[in-house]
Amino acid sequence: MRSSPTAPSALSRRHLLAGLATVPLVLGSAQRPDHVDRPAPPVAVPVQGSRTVLLRRASLVLTMDPGIGSGPLGAIENADVLMRGGAIAAVGAALATPPGAWVVDASGKVVMPGFVDTHNHLWQAMIRGGCTDRDLFGWFQACTDPQRGRLTPEALHSFVRLAALDAIQSGVTTVVDWVDIFSYDLVESYVRALAGTGVRFTYAMYPPEPDGALAAKVKKELIDPEPLGAFQIATHAARSAESHNRAHWETAQELGVMLNSHVLERPEQRADDPIGVLSDIGALGPRLLINHAIHLTDAEVAAVAAHDVRLAHCPLSNMRLASGIMRLADLGPRGVKVGLGLDGGTNDTSDFHALMKTAIGLQRARTTEAAVFPQVHDVLRMATLGGAEVLGLADRVGSLTPGKRADLLVIDPAALNFAPRFDWIGQLVFNARPENIEAVFVDGRPLKLGGRLVDIDTGRVVREAEAAATRLRTAG
Q: Which of 34, 282, 369, 413 is the most exposed place for a label (fewest CB within 10 A)?
């Protein structure tokens, strides 16, 4: 298996919290570098004690579980969050400090579940900001297709690692990566890059052959051994590819995973009849995730709702490519499970706060109604528990319910772009930016602390991605 010179030691990552003594750590703005562009040394975490972490005295905890907090987001003021063994152990006021716990002072901060990115293409980091005057098809022709064919395992590793780390520092704790990278050595490099960052991930693989042998091999050898990894079968639903779509659906059923398809991103794709194809092959149902779904008819909206099909909404990418606006205001009230997606190179950044704000703003612009779905509480839920529901992971992540995995964020509102306090819940959507995220935990392990990634030389990650992009473009 190939390794990257910047890949963190699997042993050090998995045992980062093999034991932590009771060490107070204030996650304050003073720990940020003076300038975000200035290279800074990696953040290190003390290693002694037990894998128990107590976030003490958070000013606001959004649990996303109305059963343990108030309102639709399960809000609790002045509360603690206890993580033990990678899971949420307790949430509440003045929790007892377990022996040997690492105590993090979260006073003045907001704690909430991590963001669930339901649709991405991380390798496209190499073409960020590219082809800005193109629609979807023009962007494929000028940006995506020429670059994809030049990828090497080493270059791919650099781009995926860069984009995954950017997503983590922006608060993403779970990502679904839709990938049409075919050869096994490229897939292997891709998966190693994802797993090495510590993010929880789902690898949605487009199998080039209808027999599903490569997909089964990838799942068994590369994904199943990763404790934070999951697998899906990806497809492009269209009449011209119906036999391939059927084979993909059969492979997904054999492997016990979801089918993940792009659907009606552009109006021209109406001729492909993707919803009709997915219906004809028997895929409509809760094991189907469709991305974009912008140009659905009334009948298709009704069919998606009736069959509990899951949707990934990518509003920033859809705007960038002039693709249109999803009928979210029609889908949400019907109970359709919708998550948010960054969608790779055409999202340009990994800013989930901008994604939430845009998901609200586009519906208001489309309908000229401020009361239209989604409201702030709706979009915060879509970004967390809603995304987990879309992926069938709501029993594991998406809320700070005791027993679930400890994927969470600590956000500092004491910032020029956020303060003063008026309505912190609303400000999380309309004011916050990635730099307000002080800490990110995945499975109880800190991936970001004090506003910086843990045990990562970001300067080196950037330099290697720049060098790889330069080599590929020069070769082209």
A: 34
Residues 298 and 316: their CA atoms lie apart, in Å, by 24
Q: 140 phi and psi, to 5 degrees?
A: -55, -50
Amino acid symbol at 83: M
The neighbour count for residue 38, using CB atoms within 10 Å, is 8
Q: What is the mean pLDDT of residues 103-116?
A: 97
pLDDT higher than threshold 80 for residue 257: yes
- At residue 200, φ and ψ (nearest 5 deg) are -80, 130
SS3 339: strand
Among candidates 442, 356, 371, which has minimal Cα distance to 406?
Answer: 442
Sign of CA dihedral 64, 69, 73, 77: negative
Backbone angles phi, psi at 311, to 5 degrees: -125, 145
Tokens for 413, please give them.
Answer: 């509102």
SS3 465: helix
Whether omega before 413 lies within 30 degrees of 0, making that bond cis, reads no
Judging by beta carbons within 10 Å of its beta carbon (0-12, 13-18, 19+), is residue 401 exposed, middle or buried? Answer: buried
Strand spans (E) along 153-194: 172-179
Structure tokens at 452: 């910086």
Residue written as tokens 């799942």? 219
- Tokens at 424, concatenated: 């912190």
Tokens of 467: 């060098």
- Euclidean distance between CA atoms 115 and 385, whole angstroms: 9
Q: How far apart are CA 12 and CA 297, in angstroms?
A: 51
